[in-house]
Amino acid sequence: MTPPRRQRRSPAPPPEPPPPAGAEGGRQKNPERLYVVAGADEDGARAAVDLVTLIVAHAEPPPSASPEQAALLRLCSAPLSAAELSAYLSLPFSAITVLITELLAAELVQARAPIVRRAVPDRSLLEAVMHGLQRL
């Protein structure tokens, strides 16, 4: 009985080169598009929005809304953070803050701080647990 012969493996094809810097999905990012989305920044005033600020829509998108504003209003039927909106719309956070500022000025959305749970439990709860364990 003869042992089975090993077959040589062909060399693996070279890995594809990474996309050039600034490319997204094989296409180049367009900075002009971001300017059009954000609009001209006349006074430079922006709402105090951070990544965890929750945005809630009050109304349906008006016919005069840009596509990005309409998409943002549709997404915000339930509260979403500014970071989630940035990810869902594939826009940088700076462009999202400009859109949110415009919608806040038009009173189409409301921005609110996230609901944060207390980091430390209530002392009375801890004492009740401790007394319950001592009675066991």
TrEMBL record:
Biased composition, class Pro residues, residue ranges: 11-21
Chain segments carrying region Disordered: 1-31
PANTHER family membership: DUF742 DOMAIN-CONTAINING PROTEIN (PTHR36221)
Entry-linked InterPro entries: DUF742
Protein name per UniProt: DUF742 domain-containing protein
Top-level taxonomic group: Bacteria
Native source organism of the sequence: Streptomyces similanensis
